[in-house]
Amino acid sequence: MTDPFARLAELGLELPPVTAPLAAYVPAVQTGNHVYVSGQVPIADGKVLATGKVGAEVTTEEAAALARRCALSALAAVDALVGLARVVRVVKVVGFVAAAPGFTDVPTVINGASELFGEVLGEAGRHARSAVGVAELPRGVPVEVEAIFEVEAS
């Protein structure tokens, strides 16, 4: 498998600190050989990176970059819980996009997350996925990404 830390370095990326939960949940939970990562929103240094609806205040390209940031945060949550080196594969990604009326390019937005997983994890980053347009997301953010990872047994 691709060394995720080497790939992050090659891409000029660092795992961010794990964002504190916004409510009564934890960033990630392991059960058996799977890690379920809670929905990650685009936050850096405790601040929301953008608000608004995709297709209105936020462009598709901006939203895809924010989805990429959400995926990076998901990797950080996995690393903090079990170690990123234990990832066998990304199993499933669910992306939510706060879509303006008539905006239908939701899959392109969530490609930002999917592509990051592939860039960092190689073939192990390929996954099943759902991309869903919604009316609102927490704190008014335009995108949220959750993921399920398979990890090596400890």
TrEMBL record:
It holds the Pfam family YjgF_endoribonc. Residues 6-130 form the Endoribonuclease L-PSP/chorismate mutase-like domain. SUPFAM superfamilies: YjgF-like. InterPro entries: Endoribo_LPSP/chorism_mut-like (IPR013813), RutC-like_sf (IPR035959). This is Putative endoribonuclease.
